[in-house]
Amino acid sequence: MWVFDATPLIYLAKVDALDLADQHEERCLVPAPVYEEVVEAGVEAGYPDARRIEAAIDADTFDVVSVDETPLRSRLEGNPNLSDADSAVLACAARRGGIAVMDETAGRTAASVEEIPTRGTVYLVLSLVRHGVITADEARDVIDAMVEEGWYCSTDMYAKICSKLDSLAD
């Protein structure tokens, strides 16, 4: 199962590509603190992407789940580089045997230390190309649109993504 952090949700919503999550066979979870941060606060602030995420949750693409207080979550909450939502994503993934979907370095580093598997937004998109669900061109369009919306990707990483897409297109 995939446990989504805020950034992947926000950027997939910004480019109207949340349906890609539904193309995976794995269950997609949104921890309650992520929901509060992204949907509740986002709707209140008038962000259209928050409404898209809310609609995807209503359509059962994502399930909002509570996150238990555990020693791991407490330890993660003590990390000044992690938000409450980040800590909840990692604790939820660990507790449920899932994979945390997050893009930020701080969260992925903490996950590595705690031996919690992570994947990024790009992984989700590329895996759909690998499985023949979308084409490499469609994946490139999604990634390019995310970058245009402000999703951070270094030049080197973008080149690697494009190279991988080219190899998958062959």
Care to describe what's here?
The chain is an alpha/beta fold and 170 residues long. Helices cover 62% and strands 9% of the residues. It has helices at residues 6-14, 19-22, 32-45, 48-58, 71-77, 84-96, 105-113, 121-130, 136-148, 155-169, and strands at 2-4, 28-31, 63-65, 99-101, 118-119. Helix 7 (105-113) links the parallel strand 4 and strand 5 (118-119). Helix 3 packs antiparallel against helix 6, helix 5 runs antiparallel to helix 6 and helix 8 packs parallel to helix 10. The longest helix is centred in the C-terminal third of the chain and has 15 residues, at 155-169. It is globular, with a radius of gyration of 16 Å. The mean pLDDT is 95.
| Strand ordering within the main sheet | 3-2-1-4-5
Number of helices: 10
Helix content: 55-70%
Coarse shape: globular
Q: Please trace the helix and strand order, writing H or E for each element.
A: EHHEHHEHHEHEHHH
Strand content: 5-15%
Features:
single chain, 170 residues, alpha/beta, Rossmann fold, 10 helices
Secondary structure topology:
Elements: E1 2-4, H1 6-14, H2 19-22, E2 28-31, H3 32-45, H4 48-58, E3 63-65, H5 71-77, H6 84-96, E4 99-101, H7 105-113, E5 118-119, H8 121-130, H9 136-148, H10 155-169
Parallel strand pairs: 1-2, 1-4, 2-3, 4-5
Helix pairs in contact: 1-4, 3-4, 3-6, 5-6, 8-9, 8-10, 9-10
Please outline what is shown here:
The chain is α/β, with parallel strands linked by helices. The chain has helices at 6-14, 19-22, 32-45, 48-58, 71-77, 84-96, 105-113, 121-130, 136-148, 155-169, and strands at 2-4, 28-31, 63-65, 99-101, 118-119.
